[in-house]
Amino acid sequence: MRICKRCLYHENHPLHIIINNDGICSGCKVHEEKDEIHWTNKLEELKQLLLGYRNTTGSNYDCIIPVSGAKDSYFIVHTVKNVLGMNPLLVTYNKQYNTAIGIRNLANLRIQFDCDIMTMTVDPNKVKKITRSTFRRFGSVYWHVLAGQSVFPVQIAVKFKIPLIIWGAHQGIDQVGMYSHHDKVEMTRKYRKEHDLMGFEADDLLDDEYDFIREDDIFQYRYPDENEIEQIGVRGIYLNNYIRWDSRTQHEAMIKQYGFETALQNRTFDTYNDTDCWLYNDVHDYLKWLKHGYGKVLDHAVREIRLKQLTKKEGISLVKHYMHKPMQHLDEFLQWLGITENAFHLIADQHRNPAFWKRNESWEWEYQPLLFDAQEELIQTKNFTPFTITPKGVSSDAENQYILFGKGR
User: Fold this and answer.
1) Which residues pair with 178 in a beta bridge?
2) Range(s) of the domain holding residue 202
3) What is the rounded CA–CA span in Å between residue 259 and residue 390?
Protein backbone atom coordinates (compact mmCIF):
# COMPACT_ATOMS: atom_id res chain seq x y z
CA MET A 1 0.00 0.00 0.00
CA ARG A 2 1.58 3.26 -1.15
CA ILE A 3 1.82 6.24 1.19
CA CYS A 4 2.37 9.81 0.04
CA LYS A 5 6.02 10.82 0.33
CA ARG A 6 5.06 14.27 1.54
CA CYS A 7 2.19 13.68 3.97
CA LEU A 8 0.92 10.50 5.65
CA TYR A 9 -2.15 9.53 3.61
CA HIS A 10 -2.31 6.09 1.99
CA GLU A 11 -3.80 5.28 -1.40
CA ASN A 12 -6.79 3.45 0.15
CA HIS A 13 -8.14 6.69 1.65
CA PRO A 14 -11.96 6.50 1.81
CA LEU A 15 -12.21 9.71 -0.25
CA HIS A 16 -10.23 8.07 -3.07
CA ILE A 17 -6.92 9.90 -2.97
CA ILE A 18 -4.56 9.61 -5.98
CA ILE A 19 -0.79 9.23 -5.63
CA ASN A 20 1.14 10.26 -8.75
CA ASN A 21 4.30 8.74 -10.26
CA ASP A 22 6.45 10.99 -8.06
CA GLY A 23 4.82 9.56 -4.96
CA ILE A 24 2.90 12.77 -4.11
CA CYS A 25 -0.81 12.58 -3.34
CA SER A 26 -3.56 14.65 -4.96
CA GLY A 27 -4.26 16.37 -1.63
CA CYS A 28 -0.71 17.68 -1.39
CA LYS A 29 -0.74 18.82 -5.03
CA VAL A 30 -3.96 20.79 -4.61
CA HIS A 31 -2.64 22.19 -1.32
CA GLU A 32 0.21 23.79 -3.34
CA GLU A 33 -2.45 26.09 -4.84
CA LYS A 34 -2.74 27.82 -1.45
CA ASP A 35 0.69 29.35 -2.01
CA GLU A 36 0.07 30.16 -5.68
CA ILE A 37 -3.40 31.72 -5.69
CA HIS A 38 -3.83 35.49 -5.42
CA TRP A 39 -6.26 35.37 -2.51
CA THR A 40 -6.98 39.09 -2.63
CA ASN A 41 -8.49 38.56 -6.07
CA LYS A 42 -10.44 35.54 -4.82
CA LEU A 43 -11.93 37.59 -2.00
CA GLU A 44 -13.02 40.23 -4.50
CA GLU A 45 -14.72 37.47 -6.53
CA LEU A 46 -16.59 36.43 -3.39
CA LYS A 47 -17.67 39.99 -2.66
CA GLN A 48 -19.06 40.32 -6.18
CA LEU A 49 -20.91 37.02 -5.83
CA LEU A 50 -22.50 38.12 -2.54
CA LEU A 51 -23.88 41.33 -4.07
CA GLY A 52 -26.63 39.31 -5.69
CA TYR A 53 -27.78 37.86 -2.38
CA ARG A 54 -28.01 40.91 -0.13
CA ASN A 55 -31.56 41.54 1.02
CA THR A 56 -31.84 45.31 0.63
CA THR A 57 -35.40 45.53 2.02
CA GLY A 58 -34.60 43.99 5.41
CA SER A 59 -37.41 41.47 4.93
CA ASN A 60 -35.19 38.39 5.07
CA TYR A 61 -31.69 37.18 5.86
CA ASP A 62 -28.90 37.43 3.30
CA CYS A 63 -27.64 33.89 3.78
CA ILE A 64 -27.52 30.84 6.05
CA ILE A 65 -24.45 29.69 7.99
CA PRO A 66 -24.42 26.18 9.50
CA VAL A 67 -22.68 26.38 12.90
CA SER A 68 -21.76 24.31 15.95
CA GLY A 69 -19.90 24.81 19.21
CA ALA A 70 -16.58 23.91 17.61
CA LYS A 71 -14.80 23.60 14.25
CA ASP A 72 -14.54 26.82 12.21
CA SER A 73 -17.92 28.32 13.11
CA TYR A 74 -16.52 31.46 14.77
CA PHE A 75 -14.22 32.19 11.84
CA ILE A 76 -16.96 31.65 9.27
CA VAL A 77 -19.46 33.90 11.05
CA HIS A 78 -16.78 36.53 11.71
CA THR A 79 -15.81 36.55 8.02
CA VAL A 80 -19.33 36.56 6.64
CA LYS A 81 -20.79 39.14 9.04
CA ASN A 82 -17.92 41.38 10.10
CA VAL A 83 -15.63 41.24 7.04
CA LEU A 84 -18.17 40.81 4.24
CA GLY A 85 -21.06 42.66 5.88
CA MET A 86 -23.74 40.03 5.37
CA ASN A 87 -26.76 39.44 7.62
CA PRO A 88 -26.74 35.67 8.22
CA LEU A 89 -29.19 33.30 9.86
CA LEU A 90 -27.27 30.71 11.89
CA VAL A 91 -28.59 27.15 11.92
CA THR A 92 -27.39 24.27 14.04
CA TYR A 93 -28.26 20.59 14.32
CA ASN A 94 -28.21 19.29 17.90
CA LYS A 95 -25.86 16.30 17.70
CA GLN A 96 -26.95 15.20 21.21
CA TYR A 97 -23.41 14.18 22.20
CA ASN A 98 -22.91 17.64 23.66
CA THR A 99 -20.05 18.75 25.88
CA ALA A 100 -20.32 21.66 28.31
CA ILE A 101 -17.56 23.46 26.38
CA GLY A 102 -19.47 23.08 23.13
CA ILE A 103 -22.62 24.50 24.69
CA ARG A 104 -20.69 27.48 26.08
CA ASN A 105 -19.01 28.10 22.73
CA LEU A 106 -22.33 28.04 20.89
CA ALA A 107 -23.93 30.39 23.41
CA ASN A 108 -20.94 32.74 23.19
CA LEU A 109 -21.14 32.62 19.38
CA ARG A 110 -24.72 33.93 19.52
CA ILE A 111 -23.76 36.67 21.95
CA GLN A 112 -20.54 37.83 20.28
CA PHE A 113 -22.00 38.11 16.80
CA ASP A 114 -25.55 39.12 17.72
CA CYS A 115 -27.10 36.72 15.21
CA ASP A 116 -30.43 34.91 15.08
CA ILE A 117 -30.09 31.14 15.32
CA MET A 118 -32.34 28.16 14.63
CA THR A 119 -31.74 24.75 16.18
CA MET A 120 -33.03 21.33 15.17
CA THR A 121 -33.33 18.79 18.00
CA VAL A 122 -34.74 15.47 16.88
CA ASP A 123 -36.52 13.25 19.41
CA PRO A 124 -33.67 11.34 21.17
CA ASN A 125 -35.62 8.08 20.90
CA LYS A 126 -35.68 8.44 17.12
CA VAL A 127 -31.97 9.31 17.06
CA LYS A 128 -31.14 6.21 19.11
CA LYS A 129 -33.21 4.01 16.82
CA ILE A 130 -31.41 5.41 13.75
CA THR A 131 -28.00 5.06 15.44
CA ARG A 132 -28.60 1.40 16.33
CA SER A 133 -29.43 0.79 12.68
CA THR A 134 -26.49 2.70 11.16
CA PHE A 135 -24.03 1.17 13.63
CA ARG A 136 -25.14 -2.35 12.81
CA ARG A 137 -25.42 -1.83 9.05
CA PHE A 138 -22.33 0.23 8.23
CA GLY A 139 -20.44 0.75 11.47
CA SER A 140 -21.34 4.40 12.03
CA VAL A 141 -22.57 5.95 15.28
CA TYR A 142 -22.26 9.43 13.76
CA TRP A 143 -24.44 9.10 10.66
CA HIS A 144 -27.36 11.02 12.15
CA VAL A 145 -25.05 13.97 12.92
CA LEU A 146 -23.60 14.08 9.42
CA ALA A 147 -27.07 13.72 7.92
CA GLY A 148 -28.61 16.37 10.17
CA GLN A 149 -25.79 18.89 9.80
CA SER A 150 -25.84 18.63 6.03
CA VAL A 151 -29.62 18.66 5.46
CA PHE A 152 -31.10 21.01 8.09
CA PRO A 153 -29.52 24.14 6.53
CA VAL A 154 -30.94 23.15 3.14
CA GLN A 155 -34.39 22.54 4.59
CA ILE A 156 -34.33 25.98 6.24
CA ALA A 157 -33.09 27.59 3.02
CA VAL A 158 -36.09 26.18 1.17
CA LYS A 159 -38.61 26.90 3.94
CA PHE A 160 -37.58 30.55 4.43
CA LYS A 161 -36.57 31.20 0.84
CA ILE A 162 -32.95 32.06 1.61
CA PRO A 163 -31.05 30.86 -1.47
CA LEU A 164 -27.44 31.13 -0.24
CA ILE A 165 -25.76 28.79 2.26
CA ILE A 166 -22.14 29.51 3.22
CA TRP A 167 -20.03 26.60 4.42
CA GLY A 168 -16.39 26.58 5.58
CA ALA A 169 -13.97 24.14 3.96
CA HIS A 170 -14.87 21.48 1.41
CA GLN A 171 -13.38 18.23 2.70
CA GLY A 172 -12.77 16.90 -0.79
CA ILE A 173 -10.55 19.89 -1.59
CA ASP A 174 -8.75 20.37 1.70
CA GLN A 175 -8.02 16.71 2.47
CA VAL A 176 -7.60 14.74 -0.74
CA GLY A 177 -7.55 17.20 -3.64
CA MET A 178 -10.71 15.78 -5.20
CA TYR A 179 -11.23 19.24 -6.70
CA SER A 180 -9.08 22.29 -7.34
CA HIS A 181 -9.79 25.60 -5.59
CA HIS A 182 -10.28 26.98 -9.10
CA ASP A 183 -13.24 24.64 -9.67
CA LYS A 184 -15.26 26.61 -7.11
CA VAL A 185 -17.10 23.41 -6.28
CA GLU A 186 -20.41 23.89 -4.48
CA MET A 187 -22.59 21.78 -2.21
CA THR A 188 -24.39 18.93 -3.98
CA ARG A 189 -26.80 16.20 -2.99
CA LYS A 190 -24.54 13.65 -4.72
CA TYR A 191 -21.40 14.51 -2.72
CA ARG A 192 -23.39 14.53 0.51
CA LYS A 193 -24.72 11.03 -0.09
CA GLU A 194 -21.58 9.40 -1.45
CA HIS A 195 -19.06 10.86 1.01
CA ASP A 196 -20.74 12.45 4.03
CA LEU A 197 -23.40 9.76 4.39
CA MET A 198 -21.35 6.75 3.21
CA GLY A 199 -23.77 6.11 0.35
CA PHE A 200 -26.96 5.95 2.45
CA GLU A 201 -29.80 8.46 2.33
CA ALA A 202 -32.45 8.60 5.03
CA ASP A 203 -34.94 6.60 2.97
CA ASP A 204 -32.44 3.74 2.72
CA LEU A 205 -32.99 3.12 6.44
CA LEU A 206 -36.70 2.40 6.03
CA ASP A 207 -36.14 -1.26 5.11
CA ASP A 208 -34.43 -2.00 8.46
CA GLU A 209 -36.10 -5.19 9.69
CA TYR A 210 -34.60 -5.01 13.19
CA ASP A 211 -35.28 -1.50 14.46
CA PHE A 212 -38.47 -0.97 12.44
CA ILE A 213 -37.56 2.51 11.29
CA ARG A 214 -40.61 4.34 10.00
CA GLU A 215 -41.34 7.37 7.88
CA ASP A 216 -41.77 9.64 10.91
CA ASP A 217 -38.31 8.62 12.17
CA ILE A 218 -36.39 9.86 9.14
CA PHE A 219 -38.23 12.74 7.45
CA GLN A 220 -36.09 15.23 9.39
CA TYR A 221 -33.05 13.89 7.51
CA ARG A 222 -34.60 13.90 4.04
CA TYR A 223 -33.02 16.23 1.48
CA PRO A 224 -35.50 18.66 -0.12
CA ASP A 225 -36.90 17.81 -3.53
CA GLU A 226 -34.91 19.08 -6.52
CA ASN A 227 -37.90 21.09 -7.71
CA GLU A 228 -38.04 22.92 -4.38
CA ILE A 229 -34.31 23.66 -4.50
CA GLU A 230 -34.48 24.93 -8.09
CA GLN A 231 -37.54 27.05 -7.36
CA ILE A 232 -35.72 28.92 -4.58
CA GLY A 233 -32.35 28.71 -6.35
CA VAL A 234 -30.57 27.28 -3.31
CA ARG A 235 -26.80 26.97 -3.62
CA GLY A 236 -24.08 26.27 -1.08
CA ILE A 237 -20.63 27.84 -1.48
CA TYR A 238 -17.41 27.06 0.42
CA LEU A 239 -15.22 29.80 1.87
CA ASN A 240 -12.02 27.84 1.28
CA ASN A 241 -12.45 28.49 -2.45
CA TYR A 242 -12.03 32.20 -1.75
CA ILE A 243 -9.91 32.38 1.43
CA ARG A 244 -6.62 30.62 2.19
CA TRP A 245 -7.74 28.01 4.69
CA ASP A 246 -5.62 27.43 7.79
CA SER A 247 -7.75 25.98 10.58
CA ARG A 248 -5.18 26.41 13.35
CA THR A 249 -4.35 30.04 12.59
CA GLN A 250 -8.04 30.86 12.21
CA HIS A 251 -8.95 29.29 15.54
CA GLU A 252 -6.15 31.06 17.39
CA ALA A 253 -7.37 34.40 16.06
CA MET A 254 -10.88 33.57 17.28
CA ILE A 255 -9.54 32.61 20.73
CA LYS A 256 -7.95 36.05 21.11
CA GLN A 257 -10.77 38.03 19.58
CA TYR A 258 -13.92 36.30 20.81
CA GLY A 259 -12.97 33.96 23.66
CA PHE A 260 -13.43 30.67 21.81
CA GLU A 261 -12.82 27.83 24.30
CA THR A 262 -10.59 24.84 23.62
CA ALA A 263 -10.08 21.48 25.33
CA LEU A 264 -7.79 18.45 25.36
CA GLN A 265 -9.13 15.51 23.38
CA ASN A 266 -8.60 11.80 23.78
CA ARG A 267 -7.40 10.65 20.36
CA THR A 268 -5.79 13.74 18.80
CA PHE A 269 -3.51 16.66 19.62
CA ASP A 270 -5.95 19.16 18.06
CA THR A 271 -7.70 21.05 20.88
CA TYR A 272 -9.87 23.20 18.59
CA ASN A 273 -11.97 20.99 16.31
CA ASP A 274 -14.95 18.90 17.47
CA THR A 275 -14.51 19.70 21.16
CA ASP A 276 -18.29 20.15 21.34
CA CYS A 277 -18.78 16.38 21.03
CA TRP A 278 -17.69 13.72 23.54
CA LEU A 279 -18.17 11.00 20.93
CA TYR A 280 -16.35 12.35 17.86
CA ASN A 281 -12.70 11.99 18.85
CA ASP A 282 -13.45 8.97 20.98
CA VAL A 283 -15.92 6.19 20.08
CA HIS A 284 -16.55 7.52 16.56
CA ASP A 285 -12.83 7.88 15.91
CA TYR A 286 -12.12 4.38 17.24
CA LEU A 287 -14.59 2.99 14.70
CA LYS A 288 -12.92 5.03 11.96
CA TRP A 289 -9.63 3.37 12.90
CA LEU A 290 -11.21 -0.09 12.59
CA LYS A 291 -12.78 0.69 9.20
CA HIS A 292 -10.06 2.76 7.52
CA GLY A 293 -6.85 1.91 9.35
CA TYR A 294 -6.28 5.39 10.78
CA GLY A 295 -7.88 7.92 13.12
CA LYS A 296 -8.57 11.65 13.06
CA VAL A 297 -5.12 12.38 14.45
CA LEU A 298 -3.68 11.42 11.06
CA ASP A 299 -5.99 13.92 9.33
CA HIS A 300 -4.81 16.60 11.73
CA ALA A 301 -1.14 15.67 11.30
CA VAL A 302 -1.46 15.75 7.49
CA ARG A 303 -3.08 19.18 7.66
CA GLU A 304 -0.26 20.58 9.81
CA ILE A 305 2.47 18.94 7.70
CA ARG A 306 1.08 20.56 4.57
CA LEU A 307 0.92 23.93 6.34
CA LYS A 308 4.60 23.46 7.31
CA GLN A 309 3.80 23.62 11.00
CA LEU A 310 4.87 20.02 11.56
CA THR A 311 7.54 17.74 10.10
CA LYS A 312 6.61 14.33 8.76
CA LYS A 313 8.66 12.71 11.52
CA GLU A 314 6.81 14.71 14.17
CA GLY A 315 3.50 13.80 12.54
CA ILE A 316 4.30 10.08 12.63
CA SER A 317 5.19 10.35 16.30
CA LEU A 318 1.89 12.07 17.12
CA VAL A 319 -0.12 9.55 15.10
CA LYS A 320 1.52 6.60 16.85
CA HIS A 321 0.93 8.21 20.24
CA TYR A 322 -2.76 8.99 19.81
CA MET A 323 -4.12 6.37 17.42
CA HIS A 324 -3.90 3.50 19.92
CA LYS A 325 -5.56 5.42 22.77
CA PRO A 326 -8.46 3.46 24.32
CA MET A 327 -11.95 4.93 24.30
CA GLN A 328 -12.83 7.09 27.31
CA HIS A 329 -16.54 7.52 26.73
CA LEU A 330 -17.66 4.04 25.73
CA ASP A 331 -19.68 3.55 28.93
CA GLU A 332 -21.58 6.80 28.35
CA PHE A 333 -22.32 5.80 24.79
CA LEU A 334 -23.49 2.31 25.74
CA GLN A 335 -25.78 3.73 28.41
CA TRP A 336 -27.16 6.32 25.99
CA LEU A 337 -27.80 3.79 23.20
CA GLY A 338 -28.95 0.98 25.47
CA ILE A 339 -26.60 -1.80 24.35
CA THR A 340 -24.01 -3.90 26.16
CA GLU A 341 -20.25 -3.69 25.69
CA ASN A 342 -20.18 -7.22 24.27
CA ALA A 343 -22.79 -6.23 21.69
CA PHE A 344 -20.79 -3.11 20.79
CA HIS A 345 -17.59 -5.06 20.13
CA LEU A 346 -19.43 -7.84 18.29
CA ILE A 347 -20.84 -5.30 15.84
CA ALA A 348 -17.65 -3.23 15.64
CA ASP A 349 -15.56 -6.31 14.80
CA GLN A 350 -17.79 -7.01 11.79
CA HIS A 351 -16.66 -3.70 10.29
CA ARG A 352 -12.90 -4.12 10.75
CA ASN A 353 -11.02 -3.62 7.51
CA PRO A 354 -9.06 -6.80 6.68
CA ALA A 355 -6.35 -4.68 5.05
CA PHE A 356 -5.41 -3.44 8.53
CA TRP A 357 -6.70 -6.01 11.02
CA LYS A 358 -5.85 -9.70 11.37
CA ARG A 359 -6.57 -12.38 13.93
CA ASN A 360 -3.44 -13.79 15.61
CA GLU A 361 -2.90 -17.35 16.83
CA SER A 362 -4.78 -16.54 20.03
CA TRP A 363 -7.71 -15.27 17.93
CA GLU A 364 -7.12 -11.71 19.12
CA TRP A 365 -7.22 -8.77 16.74
CA GLU A 366 -3.88 -7.29 15.72
CA TYR A 367 -3.42 -4.03 13.86
CA GLN A 368 -1.29 -4.15 10.74
CA PRO A 369 0.27 -0.67 10.98
CA LEU A 370 0.77 1.67 8.06
CA LEU A 371 4.40 1.53 6.93
CA PHE A 372 5.18 5.21 6.66
CA ASP A 373 7.82 5.92 4.03
CA ALA A 374 11.17 6.70 5.65
CA GLN A 375 12.01 9.03 2.79
CA GLU A 376 10.93 12.52 3.78
CA GLU A 377 10.80 15.52 1.52
CA LEU A 378 12.80 18.45 2.81
CA ILE A 379 10.10 20.83 4.03
CA GLN A 380 11.05 23.97 5.90
CA THR A 381 8.99 24.04 9.08
CA LYS A 382 8.75 25.82 12.37
CA ASN A 383 9.27 23.78 15.50
CA PHE A 384 5.93 22.25 16.41
CA THR A 385 4.16 24.01 19.26
CA PRO A 386 1.20 22.47 21.06
CA PHE A 387 -2.29 23.74 20.36
CA THR A 388 -3.63 26.31 22.82
CA ILE A 389 -5.53 25.25 25.93
CA THR A 390 -7.79 28.05 27.15
CA PRO A 391 -9.00 28.53 30.74
CA LYS A 392 -12.19 26.63 31.40
CA GLY A 393 -15.34 28.72 31.40
CA VAL A 394 -18.15 28.59 33.91
CA SER A 395 -21.10 26.42 32.93
CA SER A 396 -24.57 26.21 34.39
CA ASP A 397 -24.78 22.59 33.27
CA ALA A 398 -23.64 19.60 35.34
CA GLU A 399 -20.29 18.29 34.18
CA ASN A 400 -19.79 14.68 33.06
CA GLN A 401 -23.50 14.10 32.51
CA TYR A 402 -25.57 13.70 29.38
CA ILE A 403 -26.73 17.11 28.12
CA LEU A 404 -29.51 17.38 25.56
CA PHE A 405 -30.12 21.11 26.07
CA GLY A 406 -27.70 23.47 27.79
CA LYS A 407 -27.94 27.03 29.02
CA GLY A 408 -24.44 28.09 28.11
CA ARG A 409 -23.49 31.42 29.60
Assistant:
1) none
2) 37-241
3) 9
Asked if residue 267 is part of any domain, the answer here is no
Q: What is the dihedral of CA 347, 350, 351, 355, to 10 degrees?
A: 150
pLDDT digits (tens, 9 = 90+) for 45-66: 999 999 999 999 999 999 999 9
Please say whether the beta carbons of 115 and 91 come within 8 A.
no
Q: pTM for the whole thing?
A: 0.94
At residue 25, the 3 state secondary structure works out as strand
Number of structural domains (the chain) is 1
Burial class (CB in 10 A: 0-12, 13-18, 19+), 388: middle
- Rounded to 5 degrees, φ, ψ at 307 are -85, 5
In a domain, 248, yes or no: no
**Is 43 part of a structural domain of the chain?**
yes
Pairwise CA distance, residues 150 & 35, whole Å: 30
Residue 136 belongs to a domain with what CATH number? 3.40.50
**Rounded to whole angstroms, what are the CA distances from 319 to 24, 45, 196, 276, 370?**
20, 38, 24, 22, 11
Residue 352's φ and ψ, nearest 5 degrees, are -65, 135
396 or 296: which leads in pLDDT: 296
Give the integer Cα–Cα distance in Å for 359 and 40. Answer: 54
DSSP structure class, residue 81: I
Query: Dihedral (C-alpha) 254, 256, 257, 258: value to the nearest 10 degrees?
Result: 70
| Full 3-state SS string of 135-153 | HHHHCCCCHHHHHHHHHHH
Q: Give the DSSP H/E element, type plus range, for residue 367.
A: strand 365-367
Q: Using one digit for the tens of pLDDT, what is the confidence trace for 73-127? A: 999 999 999 999 999 999 999 999 999 999 999 999 999 999 999 999 999 999 9
Report whether 356 contacts 334 (CB < 8 A): no
* Assigned domain for 172 exists: yes
Q: Where are the beta strands (DSSP E) in 37-167?
A: 63-66, 88-93, 117-120, 164-167
Q: What angle do CA 147, 303, 176 make, to 5 degrees?
A: 60
CA distances 330 to 115, 235, 275, 340, Å, are: 36, 38, 17, 10
Strands 235-238 and 164-167 turn out to be parallel
Strand order in the sheet with 88-93: 117-120, 88-93, 63-66, 164-167, 235-238
The widest CA-to-CA distance across the chain, in whole angstroms, is 72
**Contact partners, residue 222, CB within 8 Å, separation at least 6:** 151, 201, 202, 203
